[in-house]
Design brief:
This protein is mostly helical. Helices cover 86% and strands 0% of the residues.
Length: 320
Amino acid sequence: MQWLYDLFYGIADNPESMRVAVVMIAGLSAAVLGLGVIFIFMGVADPIRRRMSHFHGNEALEDGRRVFSIETLLGPITQYVLPSEEMERSRVIAKLAYAGFRAPNALQVFYSIKAVLVVTLPAIAILAMQFFPQLQTQMVLLYALGAASAGLIGPSYVLDKLVARRMKRLRDGFPDALDLLVVCVESGLGLTQALQRVADELAVSHTELSLELAVVNAEIRAGVDRMKALRNLADRTGLEDIKGLVSLLVQALKFGTGIADSLRIYSEEFRDKRMQKAEEQAAKIGTKMIFPLILFMFPGFFVVALGPAVLRLMTVFRDF
């Protein structure tokens, strides 16, 4: 502990070090506060966590009260921050659904987080700039503008990353789910029972896809038409592979064709498509390697190959 006291007194004696330490502590505190607020909103808006909380009695009641209080708090704000165009709202709602946030207030929470960050980050930046009196007013305003831009763009960037990560997980689990579905249907199970069995088998290895299939079964048990439930699956995931599978199943149910034969044909076509995509990616490697070769490998090669000759020529010309 003695070195902590020595470090503190050493910083306290140096005004410049003290100023930097205060700014770093303030910035770290603001970052932790912002992350905490974001994670609280994400936890409240996440439908999976809210659904799991119903298994814990009083905790479910507390979650409901928390959601109600947050909606009450953000209600006066959201009417000013939500986009006016319906197309923009639909696009953001679809992205939130792809990321796994399907609560009714997900759109309001998302834009409220944007509004809070746009206001708080410039304020924190301006307060932090008070410890640097040598900075000009134009630079302070520039930093504040940059902080506001980060608050405006940051949530959208994080949402895009969450969508990409979740869609990658769904895409990685789809081949296994398709093979299991073909096996289950060919063994004599109906479509609903096959989907339930596949959801149970993928509960550990591919949780997101297992949950989506479980939602389909829950909708069918609740009385939703099977075609509608399958279309909802395609709308929730947004993957082209799942959309193709859903279109195939809907067509098979509509015209009464064999589901097992259709799934087997689709599975073979899906494997061919994946193989073609892998070959396409492999064919692009040669073109993509041009820029690293030119920027990094060729300069080193020229230095090693031509460097001794250039040095020898320089020595010869120096003798003249």
